[in-house]
Amino acid sequence: MTIRLALLHELAGLQEIEQAAGELFRPLGMVRIAEDEPPGDEELERFWKAGRAWVHTGDGDRPLGYLLGEPLDGGLHIEQVTVHPSAARRGLGRQLIDHADQFAAGEGLTALTLTTFAEVAWNAPYYERLGFHRLADEELTPGLAAVRAHEADLGLDRWPRVCMRRPVRPGAAAG
Q1: Could you tell me the strand order of the sheet in which 75-83 lies?
Q2: Cα–Cα distance between 126 and 168 in angstroms, integer?
Q3: Do β-strands 63-72 and 53-57 pair in parallel, antiparallel, or remain unpaired?
């Protein structure tokens, strides 16, 4: 298994990974999330062009998971990290996040941030096990506050959401 930058022809496959992973929300009564459209072609291409769309590949160099990151307020904001359900529970998400940590350190960024559902087991509780902590509203940077406002406009606040932060780990920069 390898983590590398996504290739242009793989972007449609990332949408398929997102749709498959979205189905995990259906049994939780989060049908709107299960049926939500994955990131669009233009959005994925923007991350790809910026060199901040990574994939975790398996046999045949086929992507099994991906992470999209964006510099935000001195940190790297994880816009999306998703692993196909068929590859879940193998540490791929953690490895993608650790890779983002190395990238952030190399760019001189100080933290990883993300927003997620507070009460979904593979969301906030999972990220807490990876060293992220929940941010109170008064701790949000202007960029994170804007991200949360956008999510609220999209109706994601129907379920409790949180912003989370993890300092970049010392010595994380790839040599």
Answers
A1: 2-5, 53-57, 63-72, 75-83, 111-117, 161-167, 133-135
A2: 18
A3: antiparallel
User: Alpha-carbon Rg of the chain, whole angstroms?
Assistant: 15
Whether residue 173 contacts residue 160, with contact meaning beta carbons closer than 8 Å, is answered with no
d(CA 158, CA 93): 25
Give the pLDDT of residue 43.
94
Tell me the pTM. Answer: 0.93
Whether 173 has a pLDDT exceeding 80, the answer reads no
Is residue 57 within 8 A of residue 66, CB to CB? The reply is no
Q: How many CB atoms sit inside 10 A of residue 48's CB?
A: 18
Instruction: Please give the single-letter amino acid code of residue 58.
Output: G
Q: Phi first, then psi: give them for residue 73, nearest 5 degrees.
A: 50, 45
Q: How far apart are CA 63 and CA 54, in angstroms?
A: 9
Q: Can you count the helices (H) and strands (E) in the chain?
A: 6, 7
pLDDT at position 175 is 41
Tokens of 96: 């993608």
Beta-bridge partner residues of 83? 65
Maximal CA-CA distance, the chain? 46
Q: Answer positive or negative: Cα dihedral of 170, 141, 148, 43.
A: negative
